[in-house]
Specification:
8 helices, alpha/beta, single chain, two-stranded antiparallel ribbon, binds zinc ion, Rossmann fold, 6-stranded mixed β-sheet
Amino acid sequence: MQAVKGIVKNFLNLIYPLHCLGCETALEAINELRLCGHCIASINRNAMPPFELDSSPVLAYSACLYDSGLKELVHRFKYKGKTILAKIFSKLMIDYIKDNPEIADVDLVTVVPLHRERLKAREFNQSLMIANPISKEYSLMLTNTLEKTRKTRYQNELLKGERIKNLKSAFRVSPKADIKDKRILLIDDVMTTGSTLGECAKTLLNGGARCVTCFTLARGI
Ligand SMILES: [Zn+2]
């Protein structure tokens, strides 16, 4: 019996490593977020009202603040191959929707697209990975509605004025996407100035969407 328990435990350890996904500290027991107490405490939930994007009549909600612990987790997720963190991020976002249910009162979920070359280099669209569990939780269709038509510089390398110019006409509605009169939830990982979300929202509205709500894991403003 003891041997069987040992095998089961080792097997579970393979699937659910008993180490904090944030800092690798050994965990005594698996908690829901699979983070140690220190890493959980370093995530700051967002208590601010939704941000009004200035380029369009669109509200942007964010579950957390983009600072301290979450910055490190997002970095590990996007650039260190820790894609399993997507589950934690979507959990934080679903928790936030429970307090702000209007976010999920939409017809479909979509994400900010990556240019195909950047997608090839990174191998995954981080926003799609975060959006997937959210769309499932609320039985909403998750679909790519936008395409990035040209490569742009990283927004965080640019000043605000340059950011808007950098994104001008960088997105278009995918020819196959059916967005006519749809209420759309647009998901991304982090909002910095809101320029990217604003440009995507504008593209969707110009393409016939009835309304757009933006929702990110974290906001840096
Ligand atoms: Zn930790």
